[in-house]
Design brief:
Length: 288
């Protein structure tokens, strides 16, 4: 489901997209890169059969979320508090309707979205038990990435992905899903990128990463020229308990090529749902 809008604790309307099994007991939130939007699933076939409920929330100016009147007012604290309020509301609703046990959730931060994921895990540790940081630049390069996106073409190159990258053929429909995500990211022009530029410039998200209590794993591609082993080392220095998973044959699309490994971290044991019960045993045809 894509294009749903919800009102955050701040009063702002946010775009919401979901995938996987909506009544699964395991909730995982994917924080998108710059530029990006919530309506992206690295592999809907894998996600739909894993045993989790995958959620994405559009940051201000992206996808179905309202743009900010003044991008300079973008607030990381306000954003992660909106996300935490969404998690709390989802937990209450799941308990009331399906008795699903969302005591804590998994979190994936992709690219600059890692700054948002880290800020949420740091500010609301009671909500997050597992965190995956994927292809994320270090603190200074997070700011640079958001600024550079302002002049990047509206294409895969905005995500530092070579259109000829062979990994685009590694998952059925991956190129189409990425191009759709890019298109949705620019629904309000460059309003989302403008807001991200100020969000990522606020270094407060990186000041106390050592306080993160979530079980953290770092996923990087050895052939990634944008987020490399130096960036992974920066994250390991600031989140000392983080474990590094370096994919030797992957580049900037490690989110897709290592999707099973990432899900195994944020939703271990398939969300405790047996194979015969995942997705209710009814295969679905995903939108590829």
């Amino acid at each position: 489901m894509a294009g749903t809008r919800i009102r955050g604790a701040s009063g702002r309307m946010m775009g919401l997209s979901t995938g996987g099994d909506p009544i699964a007991d395991r909730l995982v939130i994917l924080c998108h890169p710059t530029p990006g939007c919530a309506a992206f699933d690295p592999d809907p076939i894998v996600t739909g059969r894993w045993g989790l409920h995958l959620v994405g929330l559009d940051r201000p100016g992206y996808g179905a979320s309202d743009p900010l009147d003044d991008p300079t007012q973008a607030s990381m604290t306000e954003l992660v508090d909106d996300m935490a309020a969404f998690i709390t509301d989802t937990m209450r609703t799941a308990d009331r309707i399906s008795k699903a046990d969302y005591t804590q959730v998994g979190l994936i931060g992709w690219g600059t979205g890692a700054a948002v994921a880290a800020a949420l895990a740091e500010r609301h540790p009671e909500r997050i038990d597992r965190l995956a940081i994927v292809s994320a630049p270090g603190e200074r390069d997070v700011r640079k990435a958001a600024r550079r996106a302002l002049i990047a073409p509206q294409s895969l190159e905005a995500l530092h992905i070579d259109p000829a990258d062979p990994a685009l053929g590694s998952r059925l429909g991956l190129r189409n899903r990425l191009e759709r995500m890019i298109g949705e990211a620019y629904r309000s022009g460059k309003a989302g990128i403008e807001a991200d530029r100020y969000l990522m410039a606020d270094a407060s998200w990186s000041r106390d990463l050592g306080a993160i209590r979530a079980d953290t794993a770092l996923f990087y591609g050895a052939r990634d020229g944008f987020a490399d082993e130096d960036d992974a080392a920066w994250w390991q220095e600031h989140v000392p308990t983080a474990k590094l998973h370096l994919a030797p044959r992957s580049g900037p699309l490690v989110l897709a090529t290592e999707w099973e490994a990432i899900l195994a971290h944020v939703a271990p044991d398939h969300g405790n749902i047996a194979e015969e019960n995942r997705d209710h045993g009814e295969p679905r045809l995903p939108r590829l």
